[in-house]
Amino acid sequence: MTVYLDCNATTPLEPEVREAVMLYLSEEYGNAGSRTHEMGARAKKAVENARRSVAAVVDASADEVIFTSGATESNNLAILGLNADGSGAETPHIVTTAIEHKAVLEPVDALKAKGYEVTVIAPGPDGQVSPEKVLNAVRDETVLVSVMHANNETGVLQPIEEIAAGLPSAGWPILHVDAAQTFGKELTALRSKRIDLMSISGHKLYAPKGIGALIARKRDGKRSPLRPLTYGGGQELGLRPGTLPVHLIAGLGMASDIAVRDLEKRRQRCLEIRERALEALGPLGIQHNGHPENTQPHVLNISVPGVDSEAAMLAWKGLVEVSNGSACTSNSYEPSHVLQAMDLDEDQVEGAIRLSWCHMTPAVEWGELTKQLRTFL
């Protein structure tokens, strides 16, 4: 049996989540906007229950959760929808990092083309950005600081708490965090009240694809000034109009509840898998692409000297399914912008393989994987 080891791209559905989705897809299929009958009322109740569940993960309020189709849409709403008119900046300025997902970098580039100034902070060779460099880049004209919590390719955690603590407690800039890879997996940092905007995706947390949220925290009683990117209907505070997908929202709510409930059990299972992977692959002289100790427990990004990633994936065909980059940019077959930003040498970048698993991952024949790679050495 081929074992799926690409959970950073998308995760399997948690069985309890599947049940919730199917209930509101096939039986309780009412429109949450229908106010004249009981089925509509039950749908609305399901949405509000899910909103509370999502908020609870990061210690937010239910009215701070805006449902979207996923983190890509949330990132776009947070960046392109940010209304900087009240900032007083003649030329608004943005600080972000070179390792962000394209769903952050491309909206930022769109604003740069409109006249915004942008400072992009490069990471160190360990894949982590310096909080001091991020904070030192902030100036009076800075309206937005956007830093992801964990990188999708390396799994390296970024110093969100330090950055949040170092920003002014009142006024600008707005702090946005792409938390697609950490929501429901790393709790403490995301509960910082200084994080104004937070993007999440359901399909990274054992919920369905097509659902996510932008968590827009109030600071000093005020929400970040956002403008909608689409219009019509007025749902989700007027920021994301359209009929709510109740079944998907219910699934995200259930996934959020389970994430908190099973956090430690899941983490321990992922650490066990990691230990076995390193024990088997370590003798190959693997190079860690990213800080080996400041990485999420379910992610390994490695290179094996002398082995190209495409060759490795071919050798592992039928054994495991892995990735050599981000699923969102894999069709381009370009070297990873993340690993290049870390200033790794070309061979290491070309050989990079990402393995990512979860608590539902079955046993892996790590010895066989090692044996297959030895044929190249």
Note the topology.
Layout: E1 3-4, H1 15-27, H2 38-57, E2 65-68, H3 71-80, E3 93-97, H4 102-113, E4 117-121, H5 131-137, E5 142-146, H6 160-166, E6 174-178, E7 197-201, E8 212-216, E9 218-219, E10 222-223, H7 246-261, H8 263-281, E11 287-288, E12 299-303, H9 309-315, E13 320-321, H10 337-341, H11 346-350, E14 353-356, H12 366-374
Parallel strand pairs: 1-13, 3-4, 3-5, 5-6, 6-7
Antiparallel strand pairs: 2-8, 7-8, 9-10, 11-12, 12-14
- Count of discrete structural domains: 2
Radius of gyration: 21 Å
Proportion in helices: 25-40%
DSSP strand content = 5-15%
* Class from secondary-structure proportions: alpha/beta
Based on Cα principal axes, name the global outline: globular
CATH fold group of the largest domain: Aspartate Aminotransferase, domain 2
Give the CATH class of the largest domain. Alpha Beta
Taking pLDDT < 50 over at least 5 consecutive residues as the criterion, the unreliable ranges are none
Q: How many E-type strands? A: 14
Number of helices: 12
